[in-house]
């Protein structure tokens, strides 16, 4: 007879710790989505991963779309933190753009499944969601602010539209770097750091400008 399949059970949280279960659900979903080739996420699969009944998951997420958005939002928070840490001790504003851009690419290449959820697959946003409410908006605003500092442009300046456009171009370039390296890993890509630096410098018009140590 085949061996009986073991079902993982989860110890019930004490009263008032429902938020802990919500965190566990998000992390379980995140683990299942880490592989870009993984099958589509389901709430039942997440429940099995956590070790709870499916009804417990539905208490926190009424749809798979809401859970996917929660995973994306958490990963965006991690990306913002990584970019902040990468440029934390840097004083040169243009170098801060370069360091944040490199952190973005390193994050994407280290977490291809999550990157796919955040930037490649359409996010299941509710109807009427404004651009300011998009997951990842804070990450893009961080990039825009750093570009403005590098170019010496204040938020009230008429050149602010150029700053926004430059930040868009940088993001598009970084997305291409990450996406191509994920989808074509056997192509002889040049080293990541000088590639990112060259792309950012050309878009900022700061080629040849480097922070001196």
Characterization of this structure:
The protein has nine helices and no strands. The chain folds into two domains: 8-62, Arc Repressor Mutant, subunit A; 73-204, Tetracycline Repressor, domain 2 (Orthogonal Bundle), CATH 1.10.357.10. With 213 residues, the chain is an all-alpha fold. It is globular. The protein has helices at residues 18-32, 43-50, 54-58, 64-86, 93-110, 112-120, 137-151, 160-183, 192-204. The chain is 61% helix and 0% strand.
Reported for the largest beta sheet, the result is: none
Unreliable runs: 1-10
Give me the CATH architecture of the largest domain, please.
Orthogonal Bundle
Structural class: mainly alpha
Shape: globular
CATH superfamily of the largest domain, please? Tetracycline Repressor, domain 2
* Percent in strands: under 5%
Give descriptors for this structure.
213 residues; mainly alpha; Arc Repressor Mutant, subunit A; Tetracycline Repressor, domain 2; 9 helices; globular; disordered N terminus
Describe this structure in a few short sentences:
By secondary structure, the chain is mainly alpha-helical.
Note the topology.
Layout: H1 18-32, H2 43-50, H3 54-58, H4 64-86, H5 93-110, H6 112-120, H7 137-151, H8 160-183, H9 192-204
Helix pairs in contact: 1-2, 1-4, 4-5, 5-7, 5-8, 5-9, 7-8, 8-9
């Amino acid at each position: 007879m085949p061996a009986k399949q073991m079902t993982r059970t989860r110890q019930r949280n004490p009263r008032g710790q429902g938020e802990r279960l919500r965190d566990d659900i998000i992390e379980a979903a995140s683990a299942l989505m880490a592989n870009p080739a993984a099958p589509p996420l389901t709430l039942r699969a997440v429940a099995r991963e956590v070790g709870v009944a499916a009804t417990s998951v539905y208490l926190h997420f009424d749809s798979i779309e809401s859970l996917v958005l929660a995973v994306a939002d958490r990963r965006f928070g991690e990306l913002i933190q990584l970019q902040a840490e990468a440029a934390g001790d840097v004083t040169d504003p243009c170098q801060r753009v370069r360091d944040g851009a490199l952190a973005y690419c390193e994050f994407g290449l280290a977490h291809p499944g999550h990157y796919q959820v955040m930037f490649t697959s359409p996010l299941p946003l509710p109807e009427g969601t404004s651009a300011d409410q998009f997951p990842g908006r804070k990450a893009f605003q961080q990039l825009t602010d750093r570009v403005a500092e590098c170019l010496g442009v204040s938020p009230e300046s008429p050149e602010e539209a150029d700053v926004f456009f430059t930040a868009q171009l940088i993001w598009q370039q970084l997305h291409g770097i990450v996406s191509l390296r994920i989808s074509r890993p056997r192509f002889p890509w040049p080293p990541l750091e000088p590639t990112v630096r060259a792309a950012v410098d050309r878009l900022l018009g700061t080629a040849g400008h480097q922070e001196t140590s």
